[in-house]
Write a structure and sequence with these properties.
The chain is α/β, with parallel strands linked by helices. The protein contains 24 helices and 14 strands. Strand 8, helix 8 and strand 9 form a beta-alpha-beta unit. Helix 13 packs antiparallel against helix 14.
């Protein structure tokens, strides 16, 4: 049942098409319980994730879904369907919208003809159900159910739960519900791919998830999947263990696309003018010239698969080489003389045309990115970041940050730099911290007292404490001078000289093992976790743990790295690079699959931590 769009999920060592099919089957069973024609009313936050497991065409052609609507307070458009299914996250604000939709349907007199259903994703919420009861609409539903959507396959080596606010919820609101869902997703994964023998973790949330896994396993009462383990090791990392990495500008091709244009559920919307031919520009209506162009970014596109993890400075060379290759292949038609040769060329034509289209798209995307990376603002900000991570003048007010505040640069950009300085200096001196706070409140508004408080609570901004960053930086070789961006030999290429701490931890766990960096691990926040899950004798493979050198040579081991609180595209690129390096080495090769609560950028983090201001002002709640 894996649709044509899922072929790229089967290309790695772990066939993630199986996981996609599992969620698809479960979802289709959910909606097929409603007999007859259906309209699905989607919470906006779920359309992207569900689009990756069940295409709209499949729902319409095979499952009687006639209409799909966005959940809006303006009510539902007219339709003649028998069933209306609301598919929503358990958020109180959305319950008010659902209630107003039902009330408006009732006034139209549509209630007698239609059945209403409510599907919570990933779990029901008592508070949400209470809100619907208070609004007097709960009884209108024929059924209220839940669909436990967990880790969604984004690509052959990338899974995401798309729980966008998990870091904020855990570290600001003390709400660890997302950690329960993470543990549950891991249980689903083990049901499909076998029990993972070795679990390692670092951080408070990692410890919680491992404890939940232990409890969930006990609740199974010995009833476990009879499948040989396909994943050898699980490494769970809290985002709080490495707050610096996501704040820095990602310098890979995909990382920069995400930084500048925001990739959402493998889709990106881009300005249309770069992607229209002259003919299209002439014939297009005004709306078509302003409507963003949507592109899917995954490894199904061969050129994107080649470019995505490269440092942006290496992209031009690859695109140029690809253009020459495609031109040469098209020119082969002139050399074809016999019918056989012509036939051979014609058979290659669809692939060549697809490659040429892809080349045109990525050339245009690269041009759009280059406009940003060549801008004075980007280069100055990048220079400031590089100086801070090298430890240059981190103990005093930074002139560039001071100027940025004076020029009223976007608040997220300013906060990003202040937080980088705070982390690289092991906190800011009281006078420096007070100065920044005063300037931000005076320039951007007093309401940002709440923003600054959020940054302190969540660990991004803190007063000066013990010197640990320099020790960690030296011990783990986080700064790599003269990194080769074209042909890299170290993960530091993804940030042009800075190696992500999170990925260094994965690298050290594989070889030579975490015991070699015990001192550094103790400096990082949260406990270290190690757990061995017993595998029945008949299902065991002759494999050792990730830190053992006793496994047979050349036998590939698969490690699932789960980031709690978000991961950047650059960190994913660094782990892919590690897998390629290990493949090239003579030792035991390692392969990596990345799982995460959601995919993040530095701007996204800063905006998430200031988002409550918008919410308070919208809901009219006083700040104090």
């Amino acid at each position: 049942m894996a649709g044509s769009g899922a072929a790229h999920l089967n290309t790695s060592k772990l066939n993630l098409g199986i996981l996609r099919d599992f969620y698809r089957r479960e979802f289709l069973e959910c909606i097929d319980k409603c007999i007859g024609s259906k309209a699905l009313v989607w919470d906006d936050g779920l359309t992207g994730p569900f689009g990756l497991i069940a295409e709209a065409s499949l729902l319409k052609e095979q499952h009687e879904v006639e209409r799909m609507f966005r959940l809006q307070s303006t009510g539902l458009p007219a339709s003649n369907v028998q069933n209306i299914i609301f598919i929503t996250r358990p958020k109180l604000s959305l319950m008010s919208t659902i209630a107003s939709c039902l009330v408006s349907e009732e006034t139209k007199g549509g209630q007698s003809r239609k059945e209403f259903y409510l599907l919570f994703v990933p779990r029901k919420s008592l508070l949400c159900e209470k809100k619907l009861k208070e609004a007097g609409v709960y009884g209108s539903f024929a059924s209220v159910e839940e669909f436990n959507l967990g880790l969604i396959p984004f690509d052959s080596d990338l899974l995401s739960m798309e729980m966008d606010e998990s870091y904020r919820e855990c570290y600001l609101e003390n709400d660890f519900t997302s950690m329960f869902f993470a543990a549950q997703s891991l249980m689903t994964l083990q049901a499909l791919y076998g029990t993972i023998p070795y679990i390692y973790g670092k951080g408070d949330c990692a410890k919680q998830v491992v404890e939940m896994l232990r409890r969930m396993k006990m609740e199974q009462g010995g009833f476990e999947p009879q499948i040989s383990p396909q994943i050898d090791n699980l490494l769970i990392l809290d985002r709080s263990v490495d707050l610096l990495t996501p704040l820095l500008y990602q310098l890979t091709y995909e990382g920069l696309i995400d930084e500048v244009f925001n990739i959402k559920n493998t889709n990106v919307k881009l300005p249309p003018e770069k992607f229209l031919t002259q003919e299209e520009k002439k014939n297009s209506k005004e709306e078509a010239l302003t409507e963003p162009k949507k592109f899917i970014l995954n490894s199904a596109d061969e050129l994107f698969a080649e470019l995505r993890d490269k440092n942006f400075n290496a992209v031009g060379t690859i695109v140029s080489r690809k253009a020459k290759t495609i031109t040469a292949e098209f020119d082969e038609r002139h050399a074809a003389k016999t019918v056989g040769e012509m036939k051979q060329f014609v058979s290659k034509l669809p692939h060549l045309q697809a490659a040429r289209n892809s080349l045109a798209i990525h050339t245009s995307i690269a041009e759009l990115i280059k406009e940003v990376t060549d801008s004075e603002g980007f280069l100055d900000s990048l220079r400031c970041q590089q100086e801070l991570i090298h430890g240059i003048d981190t103990d005093k007010v930074n002139p560039y940050i001071e100027d940025s505040i004076a020029k009223m640069e976007p608040l997220s950009s300013v906060l990003r730099l202040i937080c980088i300085q705070s982390i690289c200096n092991d906190g800011l001196k009281p006078k420096v911290l007070e100065y920044y706070k005063r300037e931000i409140i005076q320039t951007y508004g007093f309401e940002h007292l709440v923003t600054l408080s959020n940054l302190e609570k969540s660990g991004f901004l803190r007063p000066h404490s013990n010197k640990t960053y320099q020790v960690i930086r030296k011990t783990l070789r986080l700064i790599v001078e003269d990194v080769n961006e074209q042909n890299p030999n170290d993960i530091a290429y993804v940030y042009s000289g800075y190696a992500p701490l999170s990925v260094r931890l994965a690298q050290y766990l594989a070889r030579p093992g975490w015991r070699s960096i015990t001192e550094v691990l103790n400096m990082l926040p949260g406990p270290k976790v190690e757990e061995v899950q017993q595998i029945p004798m008949g299902l065991r493979k002759r494999r050792a743990s990730v830190t053992s050198s006793q496994s047979s040579m050349g036998e590939q081991k698969l490690t699932l790295v789960f980031f709690l609180g978000g991961v950047t595209q650059a960190e994913v690129a660094a782990l892919r690079f590690l897998a390629q390096q290990d493949d090239a080495n003579a030792g035991v090769p390692y392969d990596y699959i990345v799982a995460t609560t959601h995919i993040i950028t530095g701007t996204y983090i800063m905006e998430t931590l200031t988002a409550d201001i918008k919410r308070y002002s919208r809901e009219g709640v006083p700040l104090y």
